[in-house]
Amino acid sequence: MQPSPLSFVPPAPNTTPTSQQSGWQARLAPHMRLLAIAGLALVLLSLIFGVANHAAAESAHAQAVQLASVVSTQARTIAADTQRIQAGAYTTVAYRDYGRIESAAASAGSDCTNNLMSACLSDYQTLDGDIHTMQQDLAGASVPACLKGADTALRAGLALLDTGAQQAIASIQQSSMSLATTSAATVAQAGTSLATAKAALANPHC
After folding, report:
1. Is the pLDDT of residue 44 over 60?
2. Helix (H, G, I), strand (E, B) or coil at 10
3. Are 147 and 206 in contact (CB under 8 A)?
4. d(CA 30, CA 116)
5. Cβ contacts of residue 46 below 8 Å, gap of 6+?
6. What share of the chain has pLDDT > 90, as a percent?
7. Is 0.85 surpassed by the pTM of this model?
8. Closest CA relative to residue 131, chosen from 109, 107, 154
9. Cys-Cys crosslink for 146: which of 59, 96, 168, 206, Cβ 3.0 to 4.6 Å?
10. Residue 135: exposed, middle, or buried by beta-carbon count in 10 A (0-12, 13-18, 19+)?
């Protein structure tokens, strides 16, 4: 009897010999071992690269610290040099302008003592102008840290001296003894501040 074309025919069993399967596995084994070795090599390279990066980072950090130290030292040197230059420029202006003030004050003292009232008035007016000139010059000057104290005393003394000079001018114009007395007291106060400033300028420690 012929089987029906629609009847189920089970698939043929795997007839590949066990020995043949073992042969394929044997041929794949070296390949798999190479892949495993390659994988381990990649892991090792990754670890080595990480160590190298860490070493490079430590070296870069050490170089950065050293560079920062050099820059800091150079910055301090530049700051000190700048301060000395500023101190030199400041004292040049201060001594130059104060020399004019001292000259005008000496003339005023001489003429006023000799009762030369017209000359005395002119001397005080010149003194007042010289004070304003010095105040303007100091306003445009750079004051280094080492001369801050001297500058403070100098500006205070000039302000008092300016007030005293104006009081003296008014006393002459108004023939006022009380204004003259007030002027003398103000000028004495100015002298104290100016003496402090002069001493500090003589020993700036810059």
Report:
1. no
2. coil
3. yes
4. 123
5. none
6. 51
7. no
8. 154
9. 206
10. middle
User: Are the C-beta atoms of 157 and 193 separated by less than 8 Å?
Assistant: yes
> Number of helices and strands (H, E) in the chain?
4, 0
Q: Which two tokens stand for residue 69?
A: 């130290």
Spell out the domain ranges in the chain: 90-202
Residue found under tokens 């043949």: 20
Q: Using CA atoms, how far apart are residues 72 and 65, in angstroms rounded to an integer?
A: 10
Per the CB < 8 A criterion, the answer to whether 128 and 166 are in contact is yes
Phi, psi for 15 (deg, rounded to 5): -105, 10
205, 157 Cβ separation under 8 angstroms: no
Structure-token pair, residue 55: 């070493």
User: Both tokens of residue 106?
Assistant: 């000496």
